[in-house]
Amino acid sequence: MATQFLELKDKGGMNPPRLLRIDERTVSLLGDGYAKELGLLPGTEWTLEQTEQGVLWRRVDDNLLKLYVEATNACNLNCRTCVRNVWEESPSMMSDETFARVIEGLKALPSVQAVHFGGYGEPLVHPKIFDMLREVKSLGLRTEMITNGTLLSAEYCDRLVAADLDLLVVSIDGASETTYDGIRLGSDLDVLLKNLKNLAAARYRANKRTPDLGLSFVAMRDNLEDLLTLKRMASQLRASFILVTNLLPHTEDMKEQILYSTLIASTYPLRTGPNRRDPQVIFPPLDRSQQIMEVVRKLSIGRSNVQMPGVDPNRSRNYCRFVREGVAFVRWDGEISPCMPLLHSYPCYVLGRYKRIQSHSFGSLHQRSLPEIWDSQEYRDFRRRVRRFEFAPCIDCGGCELSESNQENCFGDPAPVCGDCLWAQGIIQCP
Questions:
Q1: Of 325 and 248, more confident
Q2: Which residue, among 33, 40, 34, 36, has the nearest Cα to 57 in the 3D structure?
């Protein structure tokens, strides 16, 4: 957790930010489990700053809190939206040796709270994914996974429940056969829904509430209306949330599908309670077109607990949640990247402009340990630059040849440069 709002008010007016350092006594007062859930670990530092909404509680230390592990870059589908339509990488699996180095790194970094199995591949195609989950869980860490859901057989669901997986996020980009099957080539909506019922049955048999279920939805012109049906389906499936993200086009024919051409830097979160019968819908910034606003309006009808503040005070432009929230990625081959967009190299279209993204690694686990890479001066300097976010504003300009890659900009920043990153603008969201 990077920020937290406390409902506290100071009648005497606004006060300057205060620095708070967490020690063992603080942790004991809150309870070890609750403190760890909040990220309040001994040695971490937070600032408390008064705002009109209350007190903003922000972590300022530089610890690694969450690690994404790409078990494989292979996938069993061929989606229209996928980067595989344009890249030349061969399907590969994380080796036992590489994963052993991941485990060594986790043991040496007590600040890590969670491990998320995901990246640009389907984790469930890795033959040892359940062993990986159990090994991470044995360290006392929270485990998460994102999947396309097509391999969630009754057996696999039982194994996920037995492995004590905390969160399973399923990608579903349509709520009708025509839309879903037309986007996720090689899949079938009826099969997916049956698989999600397998998960519910597996939890029931084991008398467990985990893994919690979330849905991920890539919004585009062809499927936006399906969100209305998906909201109803999510309630029936006992999903806790629907994370809506925008499309990053990788092919020219997908450029016209984006819903953020005017790049409105605001969000429309529909907040509901934690009850699985009424899942939360979490929107990225979208255009204020009639089509989009009509869908948002219909989603909120009849929900007295739905709020639409217009701008989420926890979010802002030029905010990299990966750096700000202590996240790193391990690619299948052991390379350490700072974020999802820099995990691989690929072409894409940013607001209609062609751009070539070059992957960036701060080191390999086969040469240095995870703590050594995280604490390296190069990686620290990068995180400092991203927190300041003083990159050239290519997202607002984008008019020169430098914006065709992420290797340089007109400010002379060292590669990679992040001024054109849609993740940093909140346009694209990852679980």
A1: 248
A2: 40
